[in-house]
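Page header: ASSEMBLY MODEL / two components / 772 residues total.
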Amino acid sequence: MSQDIPQSNKSFPTHPHASVVTGKEEPVTENAWSKLNAFTDARVGLGRSGISVPTKHLLAFQLAHAQAIDAVHTQLDSGALSKALLEQDWAKDWTKNCPPLMLHSRATDRATYLQRPDYGRRLDEESANKLDEHRASTTQDYDLAIVVVDGLSSLAIEQNTLPFLQALASHINDWKLTPICFVKQGRVAIGDDICERLNAKCVLVLIGERPGLSSPDSLGLYLTWGGKVGFTDAYRNCISNVRPAGLVYQEAARKAFYLLNEARTLKLSGVKLKDRSDDDLIMDTSKESKNFLIS
Amino acid sequence: MSKLHSSQRQHFQFSNIVGGRTFGFVDLAELMAKATPARSGDRLAGVAAESAEERVIAQMTLADVPLSLFLEQALVPYEADEITRLILDDHDKTAFSLISHLTVGGFRDWLLSDLATSDVLTKIRPGVTPEMAAAVSKIMRNQDLILVAKKCHVKTAFRNTIGLPGHLSTRLQPNHPTDDLTGIAASMLDGLLYANGDAVIGINPATDNVQQATRLIKMMDEVIQHYEIPTQSCVLTHVTNTIECIEQGAPVDLVFQSIGGTQATNDSFGFNLANLAEAQDAALSLNRGTVGNNVMYFETGQGSALSANANHGLDQQTCEARAYAVARKFNPLLVNTVVGFIGPEYLYDGKEITRAGLEDHFCGKLLGLPMGCDVCYTNHAEADQNDMDNLLTLLGVAGCTFVMGIPGSDDIMLNYQTTSFHDALYARKVLGLKPSPEFDLWLAKMEIFKNNEQFTLNHQLPDAFHKSLNRMIGGRS
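Prediction written out in full:
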C-alpha cells in the first residue's frame, strides 16, 4: 500500500481566500471558517456545491473509506511477515529454536469471520494440533506468548508489527518466549486458546483494530496473564491506537513492558491491574483548550 | 436448531401444513424469531429461520395469531423481568378494544387502511404492546413500514417543538477524540452554520465521568445562551453520572441513557427503571424547558440484548421493540435507534441495516415515540454512503423525527460514519422538510438561511459569528 496517499484530512487542500464572496454565482461556495480544520481532524468547513459536498471533498472521503475497507478485507500475508521477522537481528533469539507458527481460526473466510465472532476466538483443528505437538516436543517453560492476529485490519499488522516488536525486544531480554504465532481470521480471545495450549504464563496479542476513516492502520495490544479459553475482557489489559500517527512504538513498548512486569509481579491482569505508567507525568493544564464561540 | 427427526416428539404450539409438510414452532418466541426478515444477529443467536421457506411459513403462521395472545403469553417471564411487568401492567384495555378483534395479519391490513387515521393511531397507542408492533412489522414490506409510520404523529417539546408533520430535525453531534473544546466548538459552528442542531446538540464524551460531563454541559449551555438558540444540549453519559451533574448544579437540559428491551440488558448497562424515574424527576426539577417538558433522550439499537447475553432466546428486533416500552414510560424528547453502529455480526450489510432502520422507526412511531435514526455504518460492515443516502431518503419520506448531523459524515471520536450536515440539507431540499419552527425562525434571524422556504444558505458569514471566528483564525473572514 502506497505511503504517500493522504490518510488524514489534514492534507485536504485549504483555501487561503476561502471567504471570498464574488457576487456572481459560483458552483462551489467556500466556507469562511474552513481554516478551523487546523484545530480539529473533523471535516469542518468543507464548503458546498448547492447544499452538497464539493467534488474534491467527496472523493477524499471515498478514498479514506476505500482504505478502511481494504484494511478489513485484504488478507494478511503472514508468510511474508514471518520471513521478514526471521531476517531481523533483534529477533534472532526468538526464532532460533523454532520458526514462527502459522495458525488459523475456525472462521474459514472473511465473511464468516465478520458474522461469527465466536469462530474467530478459537483455533481450527489443524492449528490446535500444531500447538499441542509443539508443547509435547519440549519441556521448556514459557513466560510469554506473542501472538500476531490480523483482526479487522491486516494493514495495521503489516505496518506496525515489526517496528513495535523491535521497540519491545530490548525490554524483554530475560523473558522466555514461545514461538511467535501468526493467526489469520482471529479475534482477541484466540490468544487465550494459544496461551493455554502452549502453557505460557502470559500472552500478548497484537491485533488489527476496527479501522476508522482516518486511522485504517491502528494496532491494538492485549495482555492476559494465564490466558484460558472463556476468559472475558475483564481479564485483559489493552493498549490501543498504536501507529505512527497515534501512540508511537517506543511509548507503546514502554506501556506494554510496564503491564507485563506488573502482571508478572502480581500474577494477574485485567481490571485489577491498573496502568499507572503515566503517573509520573505532570499534566500541563495551561494548554487547556477554550470555547472560542463565546469568550 | 429446530430441525427435528420424526422420532423426536416435541410439543408445537403452532404448526402449519404446507405442501404436505408440517412446519412446527414450539412457542411464540420461536415463531416471532423465525418470521423475522433475515439478519446476521439472529443467525448468530441461532434463532433465525433455517430456510427462506420456513421464514415465510412462520410469517403466514404469525399472521393468524390474534393480537390478544401477546397479552396472555409473555415472551420474557413476568416475574423475572421488570420490562415485561411494565408492558403488561401499563397496558390500556380501552385503547386496545379498537383492535382487540384483530390477528397480526388483520392488524397489518387495518394499519394500512383508511380506518387507521392519524387520530385513531394516536388513540390506540397505549393499547399496542411492543410485541404486537414487532409482530406486525415482521410481515410488512418496507413501503408498508413507511406508509404507516408517516401517519403516526408524535410531537414533543423542550425549547422548541419537534415532530410536526413536514418537519425533520437534526442532532448536532460535535464529538472529539479528546473532548477538546476548540475542536468541539469548531464542529458546533460548522453545524449551526449548516442549519443543523434543532433536535439537540449532543456530545458523546471521550472521557466518561461526572467532571468531564459537567465541563461539556456548561460549554454547550454557554453557546446556547450566547446565541439564544432555541435548542437543547445533552452529554451522552451514564444516567447516574447525569444525576450527579444535576446535584452539583450543572445546567442539564436532557438526561441520556442507552436502553435495551430486557431487564438483563439494562442490568448490563448498569441501570434500572427506578434510576430513569429518579433522573427524570431531577431534570424536571430544573425547569429549563421553555415550550415543553420532555427531558429524556434515549438511544437503542438491534443486537444490544444479544451482545449482553440477555436476549432470552428472542430475535433482536423483538428485543429492540421492547426497549420502546422503557422509552415511552418516561416521555422522551427524542429516541434514536443507532442502527448501523453495532456492526456486521448483528446487521451484516446495507440491506439489513436499511430494513432494521425502517422497522425501528415504524415500531417506535406506532408506540408513540419521537423516533429518530442514526443512519450509520462501520467500516467492517458491507455498507457505504449510497446505502446511507437510500435509508436517509426512505426515513425522510416516512416522517422520521430526526437524524444525526456531523461534519462530513466522519465521527472522529466513535470511528464510524453517520449523516452529515450536508445530508440533512439534502433531505430538506428533496422532500421539503423544515426544521423545528422555533429553530427555523432563529436561522432566519441569524441570517444563516437566506431563504427558509428554499433551504438556501447565506453566502455571507452571518454577522453574529464574525467576532468568534476572527478570534480563532484572525484576519479576513
